[in-house]
Design a protein that fits this description.
The complex is a heterotetramer, with 2 copies of chain A (381 residues) and 2 copies of chain C (298 residues). Chain A is α+β, with helices and mostly antiparallel strands and 381 residues long. Helix content of chain A is 38%, strand content 24%. In chain A, the strands form 5 sheets. In chain A, strands 7, 8, 9, 10, 11 and 12 form a 6-stranded antiparallel β-sheet that branches. Chain A has a 4-stranded antiparallel β-sheet with strand order 1-6-2-3, covered by helices on one side. Chain C starts with 9 loop residues before the first strand and ends with a helix. Classes of the chains: A alpha+beta (381), C alpha/beta (298). Chains in contact: A-C, A-D, B-C, B-D. Chains A and C meet through α9 of A and α4 and α5 of C.
Amino acid sequence: MNLHEYQAKEILRRFGVAIPPGEVATTPAQAEAIATKFGTAVMVKAQVHAGGRGKAGGVKFCKTPADAKEKAAAILGMKIKGLTVEKVLVTVAADIGSEAYVGIIVDRASKKPVFMVSAAGGIDIEEVAAKTPEKIRYHPVDVRYGLQTYEAMQLGFFLYSDVKLARAAAKVMQQLYAAFIASGCSLAEINPLVVTPQGEIIAVDGKMVIDDNELDRRPDIEALRDESSEEQSEVDARKHNLTFIKLEGNVGCVVNGAGLAMATMDLVKYYGGEPANFLDIGGSSNPEKVVNALRIITEDSNVKAILFNIFGGITRTDDVANGIVTATKANPLKVPLVIRLTGTNEELAMKILTDNGFTASKDMDEAVRHVVAIVKGEKAA
Amino acid sequence: MNLHEYQAKEILRRFGVAIPPGEVATTPAQAEAIATKFGTAVMVKAQVHAGGRGKAGGVKFCKTPADAKEKAAAILGMKIKGLTVEKVLVTVAADIGSEAYVGIIVDRASKKPVFMVSAAGGIDIEEVAAKTPEKIRYHPVDVRYGLQTYEAMQLGFFLYSDVKLARAAAKVMQQLYAAFIASGCSLAEINPLVVTPQGEIIAVDGKMVIDDNELDRRPDIEALRDESSEEQSEVDARKHNLTFIKLEGNVGCVVNGAGLAMATMDLVKYYGGEPANFLDIGGSSNPEKVVNALRIITEDSNVKAILFNIFGGITRTDDVANGIVTATKANPLKVPLVIRLTGTNEELAMKILTDNGFTASKDMDEAVRHVVAIVKGEKAA
Amino acid sequence: MSIFIDKNTKVVVQGITGRDGSFHTKQMIEYGTQVVAGVTPGKGGQKFEAVSPRGEAIMVPVFNTVEDAVKATGANTSVIYVPPPFAADAIMEAAASGVQLVVCITEGVPVLDMTRVYPFVKERGVRLLGANCPGLISPGQSKVGIIPGRICAEGSVGVVSRSGTLTYEIVYQLTRAGIGQTTCVGIGGDPINGTNFIDCLAAFEKDPQTKAIAMMGEIGGTDEQEAAAYIKQHMTKPVVGFIAGQTAPPGRRMGHAGAIISGSAGTAAEKIEAFEAAGVGVARRPIDFVDLIRARLK
Amino acid sequence: MSIFIDKNTKVVVQGITGRDGSFHTKQMIEYGTQVVAGVTPGKGGQKFEAVSPRGEAIMVPVFNTVEDAVKATGANTSVIYVPPPFAADAIMEAAASGVQLVVCITEGVPVLDMTRVYPFVKERGVRLLGANCPGLISPGQSKVGIIPGRICAEGSVGVVSRSGTLTYEIVYQLTRAGIGQTTCVGIGGDPINGTNFIDCLAAFEKDPQTKAIAMMGEIGGTDEQEAAAYIKQHMTKPVVGFIAGQTAPPGRRMGHAGAIISGSAGTAAEKIEAFEAAGVGVARRPIDFVDLIRARLK
């Protein structure tokens, strides 16, 4: 789960990181009032889960409250990478001496949280990694010990030769690490970490991505979820314990298991089709899930045909068959349906489908070829 | 540093351990008022740094506030193992179903904090260890991971077969461990851990010993020090960065280094004398330390002669010599002094001593034989 | 022969009385796995009832702790079906109890938990499979986990995969084509797991019965590339590989955390290229495994 | 020959610009130790000046981190003179930097810090001496720590001790009697330290130059008993031992945490008995070492 900048900053502030004052506005008038209260120049920053806000015009410097109102009016309602800006952060504009990057991600290779720090901050770390990799220092942290002071100091000295700044940066590393662990992050970053002309170290932007698996035990973090800023079909799917990702094609896919789902999409593509989505109904079988899956997929008007590919292990194929029957009785499908079922209780599933006028294949390859032929108009349903 | 029961309980309570309400009284009237407030039977418990309080009559059950006043009057001012009782804890008397022991110490052999738990609580764990060692389960904790839930459950099931009690006990283990680490303990124990007839788990007594080396970074714990309950000469020594322990003999000893100090005492004993104290002036040299050491030793009227045994490494022997001269000029000694000095700046030290009318040996064995002969009356100073 | 488990594997089931645990314990026993103990705190002393392949009633003793279970039964393998918040603790409990293999089926274990679990099991020399994996099966000998027994057959192909149902799909196609397996291993799709492709490849290389290996990778990470390098250097047996996720858009999650493309690393194209460079046969479609493996078994 | 340090030992001093660090760095350099680097955060780039045994000025480069120091100078040993609250971090910094030996002089390191430091250094295969120890000296070759150089002499006796000034006392008496040493090691008196008697005994056993060993123990713990058992089983060279603290009352601290008698374990009588049972010569008085060692060198 992505946090908004203002949420990430609030957490970092609790862990001691110095952050310029800021408040969230949902209307231009609020933005003006906040800027008036601060009494200084402010930044107005779009709060959306998308990178490149600056380039898209979603981050603006405002000298006066009137200016803040005007810029907020321009940013609120703007679309950035398909997401509508519903909120802006109005925050005191910082004097910037130098900009650094400090981030932590969980790394598959070392199986540890890894710090990435660079004195070349203020731009995408991917860009730094691609163009000037020597400007990044990577540092894996052994979670059994946590980030030791000496490690934080090594990172601090990598950023700054002055010992006071190195020490202050080391403290920020420890605070960021503590926030990362305590919040169940898979990524946390401060970019830029700014040294002001006065020699203070402050975090001017903050980002956190929370491991979804941590949310059950962190209701305080789950409560930060902003559903208005997510793809609505994905929110809907998550509520029904489905994993759904909308894509651009026209073959709707309902599969159990992420690996098989990806393999199914790949096979659709292999035979010349384009998948309309990734949808994993997961392991536990439940006709209700199938009903919801069909509903979500059919909301996408691009979808020209739907493919079920179910390999019943834990999933009982008769549950899936029942779900298909129930869903289509309630809301008859307007697009053709191709079903492939095998595994647990497949004889029963086949009977249920046949009794209700459906046909089904036991072979994945055959079913995919069939659905692609349909959307290409080579074959009737 | 030892904490009083009431202090240890306050810390444990902060970590979530259930503890019967209690308050400290320094007068019988206060004890009565506290008992009145609780409105139930209470225990009045002497707060001294000594074991065996119960056997010494320092722990009493009181049915009424008047009873509490009377018992407090008896206990306050009582001497337990040489220590005067200045405070009592007045605490709600608990209904006791069963008593267990739960403790943690830092273990030299495993180099880890080790849990000791036993269903045979309410008595000294040393007694259980001696008589029924099979009733104790030891469990070393890997501090890199902390006490895992499964470990706490293993200990919980060792105490109770009922899963609810096992779980509740496991929680207490985790709370005790957290308190142990957070407070810089070298020992923490709950004895007894009581199951009430209602099935609640509560800590009826609590003990904590803090590693002295932790105190610098834990001013909140250092603030709990109760100097009134310690040997005054030892308090005095600590304030002057000396390690001093009063013993029963008559040869005062001033040595640098704990190992050499013990070896010196042993040699006094070997030649038929009895050391009056252990006193380590430590590594850094400083005439002031010597002045304080002499003052503290001469306050003990048992001391018949004083031995200096200084092997100058970091310690500069001229500093020691200067300290001896200064101290004896200010307060002329009433007992003979035997000095052994060798090492850093020994020529200068010898000159200082000779110029001021002292003699000194370079040989430890000779010096010890000399001081023992003096106290035995075999030889003049 | 087989890898990691065989006829002598003695299994303790953590979470045996739970919904998934009880269902799959029955399935395992029905398949012929020696399930010698179960663990559910508070149910120590009870018996769990199941039916053997020969139709006999089997009474599995239940214990409060894995320690108790191992002491009483000599179990050498644990399989875990406990809810995600307790899975890390369950893995550590198993690893500390003296078993040699821990198979964690549980899906949804927080990745930071795994950063602690991983060194814990390594320090003890215990093999961990998973979390978020279907377990493993040595057809005709033992199954530990949830891979459906009836889709497998005894034979000479080693199967190793990051995904669950995709594994079933390919094993099913192999079996239908008359190609049996030595052991099928699902290593799980989480970013941090206990056993990787290389561990399994090395074990298959050593196993005299295994004549060829089928491996199924996914986008995300660099495990497949490292496996390819290992194959080139150390493997004498033929390997056929597949990568799922060619159509997945960069930077989007696909159901589990294994399927993230981070920057340029971990694309399907990159992995397929690594396979080809290592002489690994590349299955473009799941069905391709049949011909590619068959050709290599000759 | 010697153990742990020799002519080729290249030392980095952590806390080189502090009061104790600067004093002892000068002493070490004056003794002939190769001090190649110092560390004080914020003083990187400065030089520390000292005088060699031949009277030449030596300029020791100072670095911000041990990592920098080791990279620039190839130091293989670190010696630590930082205040107690920072000592554990300093040890870990050194152990992670690639040095093989870390000598921590600092007294007063919290014991819970050491419970973390101990596995950290062990995992890296680094030898830690101390904390709260005087360090070690191989007469004529190198000294790392604070043992006064002038009380030692080259020879064939290995010395290992839990205490500081008591070690000096005994080394001094040996030297005065014409008995030189291969290496004198102070392992420190804290409850948890990095190197114990057995580590040193094993090293002395292997060192061809060492002909006999003098060891000084203390009350508290069971290290001396374990050392005695080791001597009986593994040592061919003669050992003479001493235990300080016979007159210490049970349960009282004697200056450092090593000197606690917990229950019946760790009394002087118990330790002396263990020595005798293992054929270790027992010095009743410090002066006894001279005759006991001399007899064993013949």
